[in-house]
Amino acid sequence: MGIRVRFAPSPTGPISIGNVRTALYNWLYARHTGGEFLLRIEDTDTERSEARYEMEILEGLKWLGLAWDGPIVRQSERTEVYERYLQKLIESDRAYFCFCTKEELDADYAAQLSQGLMPKYVGRCRTLAPAEAARRLAAHDPAVIRLRMPDALFTFTDLIRGRVSFDAALTGDIIIAKGFRAPLYNFAAVVDDYESGISMVIRGEDHISNTPKQLAIHQALDLPHPAYAHLPLILGPDRKKLSKRFLSGSLMDYRRAGYLPEAMRNFLALLGWHPVHDQEILDLDALVREFTLERVQKGGAVFNPKKLEWMNGVYIRTLSVEALTEHLMPLTPPAWQADGEFLYRVVAVERERLKRLGEFTERASFYFTLPSYDPALLVWKQTPVAVIRENLAAVREALRNVSPNAFTRAAVDAALEPVIAARGRGEVLWPFRVALSGQGASPGPSELAEVFGADETIRRLSAALDRIRA
Ligand code: GLU
């Protein structure tokens, strides 16, 4: 049988970064091995599952370019299938109906705890005669279905963690369904992994304690089980478990903040895995080519938001001005789109500094509307105001002699050379830059002058002169 993996999210909340990494690793593994990547929506929890979260999952996968193979498996549409398997388990007596009430169970657990024991099901209904169970079911007594857990050690070889053992005796008989038509996660997952021919389960380490339960279900059903690979936890920058602050940041939050899918993919791929040669920037082809489970680390993977920003900046700079402008369009006020050529020039300059697309609106607003600034900002260090005024006038004079048709950065620099020689670099360039940007930090003045062109540059210089005179 071929290689087949699945991504099996529950649509019970915004799609988290941890889950997206699981999807990506499954996808990379499938593409690297020439296998298949299936998508399964685990929506058996009808109370918490919502259609909008499923849509978000699909949209997120598409955004990241992680196409799945074949139709989506939706657990809520497979009740009959699970029912068949549950019946088989009841008939073969590998599972049984349990009628214990919450009060009974709570009392059992409290008694166990008071004796210093791990709470687990005491097995009260284990030996209930089938006729008695049938009678109580017919009387509509509330019941769940429990699996008879064997008194055995479950050992499996995890592809990342090596040999892992769990003592099933510690678990007690687990609930696998709340009725024939209400399977729980562990049970439905086993049935679907088998029916879909899943060869390898790649998922977060938080699921490792489910694995022995699932192995027990496979065994009870006489079904072969897939191989397992549990991915390391994602840790916050302080190496503690990733806090809500980052985890609650869903994939869509990152998208809205202006991270590019290429950067997200690259960043998430390195969250627990690294290639043979320690390069950081890997495009999708390189990731597919290099990805192997052998290189996934055991220890927690530290989520470093600074690295994500840096990487996003790197990918932003690989985009052409046209492509980047296209990405920025939804974030750009309509008025900015009136002059496409001007917008391109702004984007070309800002591209060099941008870390997130979302920063653009704030960074670029001064190109479109000169902010009202304090004239004191025009003053370089201890230079007297009168001198600053003369310097601005000299800059304006020099630039009036530059042809408006060739108002390039180089032409502006050349025109300013004698002014700077006579009046000093900071004394000339600082007020010029503030005159153009109206702010304390911005790209350099000749870069800005080229973006603005001769008319607007002269206009802003005149405005600065008016301001400093007032
Ligand atoms: N629905 C589970 C989750 O979202 C899937 C676990 C698994 O991959 O088996 O965590």
Summarize this entry quickly.
The chain is mainly alpha-helical and 470 residues long. It has four domains: 1-69 and 232-315, 3-Layer(aba) Sandwich (Rossmann fold), CATH 3.40.50.620; 79-230, Rossmann fold (3-Layer(aba) Sandwich); 319-367; 370-470, Arc Repressor Mutant, subunit A.
Describe this structure in words.
The protein is mainly alpha-helical. It folds into 4 domains: 1-69 and 232-315, HUPs (Rossmann fold, 3-Layer(aba) Sandwich); 79-230, HUPs (Rossmann fold, 3-Layer(aba) Sandwich); 319-367; 370-470, Arc Repressor Mutant, subunit A. 48% of the residues lie in helices and 10% in strands. The chain contains 19 helices and 12 strands. It has helices at 17-33, 51-64, 79-91, 102-114, 130-138, 185-195, 211-220, 244-247, 251-257, 261-269, 284-290, 305-318, 321-328, 340-350, 360-368, 385-400, 409-423, 425-437, 445-469, and strands spanning 4-7, 36-41, 73-74, 95-98, 144-147, 153-158, 162-167, 175-177, 200-204, 227-231, 234-235, 301-302. Strands 1-2-3 form a 3-stranded parallel beta sheet. The longest helix has 25 residues, at 445-469. It is elongated, with a radius of gyration of 32 Å. The N and C termini lie far apart (82 Å). The structure holds glutamic acid. Glutamic acid is lined by residues 8-10, 42, 189, 203, 207.
